[in-house]
Write a structure and sequence with these properties.
By secondary structure, the chain is an alpha+beta fold. The protein folds into two domains: 17-191 and 289-324, Double-stranded beta-helix; 199-279, no CATH class. Helix content is 29%, strand content 19%. The chain has helices at 30-41, 56-66, 68-82, 100-114, 190-197, 201-212, 250-259, 266-281, and strands at 17-22, 87-92, 115-117, 129-131, 154-157, 169-176, 185-189, 215-218, 234-237, 286-288, 295-299, 303-307, 316-324. The strands form three sheets. Strands 1, 2, 3, 4, 6, 11 and 13 form a seven-stranded mixed β-sheet that branches. Helix 1 runs antiparallel to helix 2 (56-66), helix 1 (30-41) packs across helix 4 and helix 3 crosses helix 4. It starts with 16 loop residues before the first strand and ends in a 12-residue tail after the last strand.
C-alpha cells in the first residue's frame, strides 16, 4: 500500500488518498460471478440492467464464494477506509480486455461485496450508471444538466447531497480515460477542510453558521420521492456536521439562496461564500485522470469531489453507489 497520490495533507496517521497498485486480475472471477448473477436475476444477466438485489446479504454470501479476488480487494479497501482514508485509487483491476457490459457485471459484484448498492437513478432500479458525455438530448437543445451526462466542469460536490440519507460510498471505474488532458477528477478531504477553516475567525464563523442553519437546497424533480423534499421542492438541512459530515452541491444551494432569499439572511450567503472560496483555492488531495481500468472509491460522507471539463468523447466511467452493508437506511419522519 502506498500513498503516492496524496499532497502532504494527512487526516491523522494515514493519507487522505491511498493508492494501491495493480489488483490481482478480477476478470478471473467473472465466469463464476456471471453464474451467480444468472441464478439470482435470471439469464442473461446484463450488467446495464442489474437492479438493487432483494437480498443483499444473500447475494453477497454467494459472491464471496464465487469471487475470491474481488473479495480480497474489497477487504483491503474496507481496512483502508477504517484506517482513516477518504478515497482509494486502484490503478488496474485486470478488466481492460473485457467488453463494457462484462465490466459492469464485474464492478457490480465488487460493489455488492463492499456494501449495499443503491439505484443509480430514481426512474428505475438500475445500479450501474454510465458516466459519459451524451451530447445534446435533441438538436438545438442544451446539454444535459447532470454532471455525469455532459463534458463540462463539475464543481466540488458530494453525491446525492439532497437525499435524506446520501450514499456512504461510491466508486468510479474508468472503462476509458480521457486522453485530451481534461476529465481529471479532483477530491478534497472534508475533515482537513474543516481543520483549515477552524484556523481563522472568518472560517470558524462560517462553519458555525453552516452547521446551525438549515439551508434550502433545490431537489431535482426526479429525486423528490421518499421525503427528500418539502412541498416546495426544497430540502432544508445544515451543510456541515453529523452524518454525513458534508452536504455540498453549489448549484442547488445557489438556487435555494436566490429563491428563498426572504428566509435566508446575508450571514448565510457570506458563510457559504467563505467556505467555497477556501475550498477551490486550496490544494486538492487528489487531482488526476483515473487511468483506464482503474477505480476511485470515495467516502461520500467525508470527501468532496469534482472534475474539470474534457473534449475526448470516448471518456467512459462506471459509477456505483452503496451504503455500508446492513446499514439501516430509514430516518425519522421529521428529520431535516
Amino acid at each position: 500500500m502506498t500513498a503516492g497520490l496524496s499532497t502532504a495533507r494527512d487526516t491523522s496517521s494515514v493519507a487522505s488518498i491511498v493508492e494501491f497498485g495493480n489488483a490481482e486480475p478480477l476478470a478471473a472471477d467473472l465466469d463464476r460471478i456471471d453464474a451467480v448473477l444468472a441464478e439470482v436475476y435470471g439469464p442473461p444477466a446484463a450488467g446495464e440492467d442489474l437492479t438493487v438485489p432483494e437480498d443483499h446479504a444473500g447475494l453477497r454470501e454467494r459472491l464471496a464464494v464465487a469471487a475470491p479476488r474481488s473479495v480480497a480487494l474489497a477487504e483491503r479497501v474496507h481496512r483502508t477506509f477504517a484506517d482513516g482514508a477518504c478515497g482509494i485509487v486502484v490503478r488496474k483491476l485486470g478488466l481492460a480486455q473485457l467488453e463494457i457490459d462484462a465490466q459492469r457485471r464485474a464492478m457490480f459484484a465488487f460493489a455488492v461485496l463492499m456494501g449495499d448498492v443503491t439505484f443509480a437513478h430514481p426512474v428505475d432500479d438500475k445500479v450501474v450508471w454510465d458516466v459519459m458525455d451524451k451530447g445534446a438530448p435533441q438538436t438545438g437543445a442544451p446539454k444535459y444538466s447532470s454532471f455525469s451526462e455532459n463534458d463540462r466542469e463539475a464543481e466540488y460536490h458530494t453525491d446525492a447531497s439532497f437525499a435524506i440519507n446520501p450514499d456512504r460510498y461510491f466508486l468510479l471505474y474508468s472503462a476509458q480515460q480521457a486522453d485530451c488532458g481534461g476529465g481529471q477528477t479532483f477530491l478534497a478531504d472534508g475533515r482537513v477542510l474543516l481543520r483549515e477553516l477552524d484556523a481563522t475567525s472568518e472560517g470558524r464563523d462560517a462553519v458555525r453558521v453552516l452547521s446551525e442553519v438549515k439551508l434550502p437546497m433545490r431537489v431535482p424533480k426526479a429525486f423528490r420521492r421518499g421525503g427528500n423534499a418539502e412541498d416546495d421542492g426544497y430540502m432544508y438541512r445544515p451543510l456541515i456536521g453529523g452524518e454525513p459530515l458534508w452536504r455540498f452541491r453549489k448549484d442547488k444551494v445557489d438556487k435555494g439562496l436566490v429563491a428563498k432569499s426572504d428566509k435566508v439572511g446575508a450571514e448565510v450567503r457570506d458563510a457559504f461564500d467563505v467556505v467555497y472560496r477556501h475550498l477551490v483555492a486550496r490544494p486538492d488531495e487528489y487531482h488526476a485522470v483515473i487511468p483506464t481500468d482503474g477505480v476511485l472509491i470515495v467516502d461520500n460522507h467525508v470527501a468532496l469531489h469534482g472534475r474539470n471539463g474534457f473534449t475526448d468523447s470516448r471518456r467512459h466511467l462506471l459509477r456505483i453507489r452503496f451504503h455500508r452493508a446492513g446499514t439501516d437506511q430509514t430516518v425519522e419522519a421529521d428529520a431535516g
